[in-house]
Amino acid sequence: MMKTLLKNGRVIDPKNNIDKNLDLLVEAGKIAQISENIENADAEIIDVANKIIAPGFIDMHTHLREPGQEAKEDFESGSMAAAAGGFTRIATMPNTNPAVDNAALVRSLKERACEVAKTHIEIIGAVTKGQKGEELSELLDMTEAGAIAFSDDGHYIDNSKILLNALDYLAMTNKIIISHAEITSLVEGGAMNEGKVSAKLGLQGRPSVAEDIAVMRDIMLAEYAGAKIHIAHISSARAVDIVREAKQRGVKVTAEVTPQHLTMTEDIVDFTDSSTKINPPLRTEKDRDALFKGLKDGVIDMIVTDHSPHAPEEKDREYIYAPSGFPGLETSFPVLNTELVKTNKVDIFTIIERMTAAPARVFGIDAGELSIGKIADITVIDPNLEWIVDEKKFYTRGSHSPFVGRKLVGKPILTMVAGKVAMQNGVVI
Amino acid sequence: MSISLKGRDCLGLSDFSPEEIRLILDTAKDMKKFLRGDVKKSDLLRGKSIITLFYEPSTRTRTSFELAGKYLGADVVNITAGTSSIVKGESLRDTLYTVSAMDVDAIVMRHKAEGAAAYAAKVVKPVIINAGDGAHAHPSQGLLNLFTIEEHKGKFEGLKVAVIGDILHSRVARSDIAAMTKMGIELHIAGPKTLLPRFSTDDKVIVHDRIEEAVENADVIEVLRIQLERMKGGLFPTTREYARIFGLNTERLKLAKNDVLILHPGPMNKGWEISNEVAYSLNSAIQTEVENGVAVRMALYKLLLTGGEV
After folding, report:
1. What is the pLDDT of residue B234?
2. What is the rounded average pLDDT for all residues in chain B?
3. Strand partners, A53
4. Strands A378-388 and A407-417, sheet pairing
5. Residue B8 pLDDT > 80
């Protein structure tokens, strides 16, 4: 029987409200024991003194590009990037070619994940056929096939009646719709936040009001239907307020935010480098500050990467023609640790909660905690390791991360998936 | 203090100091004299090669850059998107590599994408001259506007200049904003609210949504082209209404100073943004601008490619 003993670590397990120096024993892929001074002669011992033992990170928003866009990423490369970044479970969005909008595709992707992935992969199904926003996909069929949630991510469901139908229909299950909230007509052709910088550069803007209205409408529809809605990659201060007010009214709304929106603003947009081109766009300082306050006080439930890799040659072109998004799995925790924890804006316990227990709770996943008997999905973090982001060392096929070249502090150094080492000291196994 | 622009790219006028702009304008003055001479051929740029790489249609700008180079003795080759491997889907990076591998000294580039010229400057070695990148910048037009204004008014300080029309989508307006206030001009911009940037790009610029306020007592009025596609995009209802409310006609012109100078970067939609009478009035310097354009571009070549030493 395989046994691994993590000794002398600082266990941070937000689900069980633990932050203490403890040993942790893994046996047969499960967490067998957590206590002080565990002695076990048969176990392989890994000394993790001065390191943090956390539940494996969960990322509910990635784009692994299967099927159809394997030049950008596939389940193998994407899950390797995940393991490198300390993630043990990632959910992939259905804006693929074809879109994941039927049970057969969900099943085949789940099989494919079992075959090649280094981490658990959850499949998010499309709300509407082909993500066109016109007709509902077979949502119950996909639910039975194991889809974790539903989203037309990349597109807003402009047709209110379709979204209301989807909300009503899915209220028969415990599944959640994840909304990419930006009113299409207000953002079409836009390459960055509409504001002072876009006015100066002449780039067409994506105004924050497009997000605010979309978030408001989706919340009102969910409230009316008594259904759940999850707001993807929230980015505007006003939208955070709208979610806050809705939560106070008892609406079943949850929200996620990305490290990029938490740490950068429109001021860094350089129109010769498409790495900062993302949807929704980087916004203003006021927005960014509202985001980390919202993250801190729980209005924003979780952190996601919105890992959106593209082939280097796709990104290396004129800003307005380059596709949106960049790969985030390998920089997520280090960026948050450097920009939010080390600067005392948000404590590490909260950051870990938003990357583990919170997504598990919202999406009903039996993971994200270090309880005895639970699956041994574990991340060990060196919170003080200094390193420089090097694109050449990425496991993802994507390129053009705005964090490339940045000196960061802290990095996951060990990722265990179901008790098996998936990454150690930066090397994916 | 001597200023040299040798080897510099010309991507936008915000990169140039007032002294550098002064140098370009002074050099352009010499060039205009030269242009009016008997033999319009110098060997200043003999042995230099220039490529004009145009991804968007153009008559005056491309021809102007071409002739400017030829008058100074450079070899000039023109590439337009429709007749090159760009139609075969070649990426901008690869086209730039191909062009620069032929040992050219300068690439004059026009492109629909904002930042395309700056991207080119990052990717390849030759001097890049931006001949218009989307709605971002058109520095040589901004310079020739300044040149024409100074030629007629003898100064910049204290002048009231009104730029009217589609400011939002205009690279010319952004170049004017970048350069004119720097030279001491009081710059007013005006147009329908849908065609004004929602956010100010420069606190020194005075914004109006009625052109009368901008035109009143103006020393110079520059009229910008409006595009039919903007109307289709719902930014204004009809060309008829645009002409009636925002067009520059003789009636509105009376609000300006008697000796007001009229500019237009062209091509004009006569009857829409500018009436025929105004375009061809004695106040109009629209044709002079074309000549000045050649002089300014010669000056740019001279300064960027030779540093100015003769």
Report:
1. 87
2. 94
3. A11, A380
4. antiparallel
5. yes
| Angle, CA A209 vertex, CA A208 and CA A211 arms, to 5° | 70
What is the set of active-site residues of B?
A: 60-61, 88, 110, 138
3 state DSSP class of A218: helix
Which value, in Å, is the radius of gyration of the alpha carbons in chain A? 20
Confirm if A6 and A54 have CB atoms less than 8 A apart. no
**How many CB contacts within 8 angstroms connect chain A with chain B?**
65
- In the predicted structure, residue B199 carries a pLDDT above the cut 90: no
**Amino acid B88: pLDDT:** 79
B204 to A38, A150, A200, B75, B195: CA distances (angstroms): 70, 49, 14, 41, 19
| Chain B CB within 8 Å of residue A203 CB | yes
- pTM of the predicted model as reported, rounded to 2 decimal places: 0.95
> What's chain A's length in residues?
429
- Ranges of residues in chain A with a pLDDT under 70 are 1
d(CA A129, CA A348) in angstroms, rounded, equals 40
Nearest residue in B to A200, CA atom: B201
Strand order in the sheet with B261-263: B206-208, B186-190, B160-164, B220-223, B261-263
Segment A292-313, tens digit of pLDDT: 999 999 999 999 999 999 999 9
* Nearest residue in A to B138, CA atom: A202
For residue A300, the Cα-to-chain-centroid distance in whole angstroms is: 13
What digits encode the pLDDT tens for the residues A60-72? 999 999 999 999 9
Q: Would the ipTM clear 0.90, i.e. be above it? A: yes
Question: Nearest CB to A318: which of B119, B137, B174?
Answer: B119
Q: How would you class A427 by CB atoms within 10 Å of its CB: exposed for 0-12, middle for 13-18, buried for 19 or more? A: exposed
* Residue B216 CB burial class (10 angstroms; 0-12, 13-18, ≥19): middle
Q: Convert the pLDDT of each residue in B144-189 to its tens digit.
A: 999 999 999 999 999 999 999 999 999 999 999 999 999 999 999 9
Q: How far apart are CA A41 and CA A32, in angstroms?
A: 15
With contact defined as beta carbons under 8 Å apart, do A404 and A391 qualify? yes
- pLDDT the model gives residue B131: 98
Q: Is B131 helix (H, G, I), strand (E, B) or coil?
A: strand
- For tokens 């060196």, the residue is A382
The DSSP call for residue A126 is: P
